[in-house]
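Handover notes (outgoing to incoming on-call)

Open items:
1. RNA polymerase sigma-70 factor, ECF subfamily: sequence verified, structure written out, both below. Nothing else pending on this one.
2. Nothing else urgent.
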Amino acid sequence: MAVPPLQNESDILTKIAEGDQFAFTILFNHYQKDVFVHSRRLTPSEDDALEVVQDIFIKIWIGRERLKTINNFGAYLNRVVRNHVFDVLKQLSQENESHVKLQSASTEFDDSTRQLLDYQDAIHILNEALTELAPQQKIAYKLCHQEGMKYEEAAKEMNISTETVRVHMKQALNKIRAHFRKHAVLYPMLILALYK
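RNA polymerase sigma-70 factor, ECF subfamily structure tokens:
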């Protein structure tokens, strides 16, 4: 990805690591379009690319504490996107699906129910969803999404098969999405607002 770094990007990353949502918004606004374009070149559909964008920035926010140690965020982001897309494509291939089905907020909800939550509420709902995961799902999600492990690495850490990790991750993500739907939003407001 060829997006130039933000001015004072290291300071912004430090603020995000400390939980600054405004700094995260700045980072998101700067990189999200390029992540989408890059993901779209590697995925079968726009819906798949959009889901990659959503998952990537959720992953960055959840694992924000590690941002303090990153010297080149553009290179880090490129690696995270590439690994995530390859995992998605591997899952699609194994499930014999042409693409991951994702209904947009505009078709899922009418205008009265599509009121977007503010970002803080969306993060609260995400954390709430994480607490409701089964123990193995929570561990798999933490290793793969928060710590950035590949399924094979997480499988070794958990002493289970790669396929079992994949199943736990699929179940975890489905539960998280279902939890957002229950609150009348598919994904955090910040991401949906820019793509509605």
